[in-house]
Specification:
Layout lengths: L1 H21 L9 H61 L14
């Protein structure tokens, strides 16, 4: 957003410079052509601002989706690691009480 402000101020300065250069550095009276030029500049600024806003909003939405996906994957990883630890613990002690084994009925 900070860069957009700098670009906007720079473009405003250029437009002011061009305006005074085309009127020979003097504004005797404010005519219809001046008003049309100002309105055209405002229109172009709104179009450019809309495009930049649309692009920056789209990229921020994509970044937010990536963050949420990363958090979801990290949570799944933690759950899988916990399950793996539980399975490893069960494999270490498969039958803690040998008297209750399935072969004792034979």
């Amino acid at each position: 957003m900070k860069n957009l402000t700098i670009i906007g101020i720079l473009l405003l300065g250029i437009s002011g410079l061009l305006f005074y250069m085309t009127t020979n550095l003097e504004v005797e009276e404010f005519t219809l052509s001046h008003f049309m030029g100002i309105m055209g500049g405002v229109g172009i600024g709104l179009i450019i601002g809309g495009i930049v806003g649309y692009v920056s909003k789209g990229s921020s939405i994509k970044a937010e989706q990536k963050r949420k996906e990363l958090q979801r994957l990290q949570q799944e990883k933690i759950e899988i690691e916990q399950q793996a630890a539980e399975l490893a613990q069960q494999n270490v002690n498969p039958n803690p009480n040998p008297n209750n084994s399935e072969n004792s009925n034979l």
